[in-house]
## 1
Amino acid sequence: MPTHTVLPNASTWQRFVDLLDALITAVKLALGLVPMRYRINNRADLHRKIRRAIAAAGLFQWPLCILCISLLGFVLASGCSPTNTENNSVAKTPAQPVKKEVGAASCYGPGFHGKETANGETFDQKELTAAHPTLPMDTKAKITNLENGKKVEVRINDRGPFIGNRVIDLSKAAAKKLDMQKDGTTEVKIETKAVKTKPDPKTK
């Protein structure tokens, strides 16, 4: 009596292909042949491969399915771990250069309180703000009093000073933080980091 080979139906073949695809993907990931970026950005696709491998378990040997699922679970668990130096080098951003300037600082007079600043704000002597001739508006600047070492961080919201060799005009609150002498000037160091330049309202 002749024997006939029974070929698996289309559904069986599809499950076999799904299982084989999941196993190949797991091996590639385990050997580091797939970039870390793919692991992170394609988690949904990897999870789908796991589900297909589980569905194929009813037709094929459990040890093979367990191996495939274990490998995929391992690489998914380590997908966000900082073990890939290539990915880490991309994620790192270079430190912003610090600009330093040394010169004389003065304090706003009481007559400027409530007046409009160069960026359109209303000047408040109780806020930690300052005027500088060239720094972009909203720049955060760390001011150090070189006479006593005291420091304060201010936000640039005005232009000036325009007297002598002065490099910055501080609000009353900022001057108090630096323990500046009343109606006097002091030598300071200004440290700033690069920021996105905004249009100067007074230059439009």
## 2
Amino acid sequence: MNGVCSPASVLYPCLSVFESLHVRLTTFQLTLETKKSSFSDMIRKARVPDVQAIQSLINCNADAGQMLPRTLNELYEHLRDFSLFEEKGVIVGTCALHVSWEGLAEIRSLAVRQDRMSNGIGSALVRACLAEAVELGSARVFVLTYQGDFFKKMGFADVDKGELPHKVWSDCLNCVKFPNCDESALMLSLSAS
């Protein structure tokens, strides 16, 4: 196979297209791992006994107008999507990665306890979700959020909501703000095109 012209092929001129893609994905994974803070050992997947604490954390942030609330039913149905940030046995942050479509995942329900905000916990949770998205084979990750600037600092860019697959909007039908959504849509590509 012929080599490709990409940053990976400049460093490794004999790479095939597939080898180059692997190097780019591996480089992305290494970048994610390098950027992980000392927090990485404080992040774990959610379990059934965590649901009440997750809901409390999310709905506290929702009450402050920072996100939309979640019902217990939604949380139990999507429990496997959630990662938690835990300090000394206390859940202080949560974030979910939901696979929406082929090659597309969504970051949902990023919430950090008010007294622990601006300490890198939210960024660590998002990086953990992005690493999981890479492992699952998602090429793109989007977010619907009121915190657009936070996600832009992490490499996300604005995207027109109309570009998101119709399936994404099935969750919106149950939202109190439907059809007048005031969240921003942002997208991050995990692999070079």
## 3
Amino acid sequence: MPPNVVLTGFMGTGKTSVGRALAELLGRTFVDTDHLIELRHGSIPDIFARSGEDVFRGYERDTARALAEQEGLVISTGGRLMLDPINAELLGAAGRVFALTAPVHEILKRVLADIEGPPRPLLSGDDPENRIHRLLAERADGYGRFTIIDTQGREPTEIAADIANRLTAEPDRPEQDSDETDPTDSDEVATP
């Protein structure tokens, strides 16, 4: 079993709900990188407004560095954290990384239904579905480096059990999961 398990992916793919279920199943501590950053530095929209994106990305790197030194964690990352090569190297060396995916229409449905969730400025505007398609295309290669887990039509506990089984069956498997379907083959499937 790897020291940590890292869940990455686009918003609305289930990182937080699956992460909590997986942590409970494995008897590990669940941490959410965005939540940790907010506890230390204030809300993410405020950080962007006050200090800019570069400062926020620095906070992400600091958080990745700190978490990479710990063990026994299930880590849910912000949507772009693992696209940074430094963060991917740090957290990838300290655990197994899974990229959660869902079709674009499912992501949109989940995000719009999450009225208690965080604000989603990336989806503001007239055509959020097109924006998701565009952002996913930009991020496809970065997320494609990790083991892909499709979350469509599955409960968080079922996805957590799938990941736990993979950890047990393939504890030392490299990050790229070559037997998975390439999520960029269809514009209907969203890479994280």
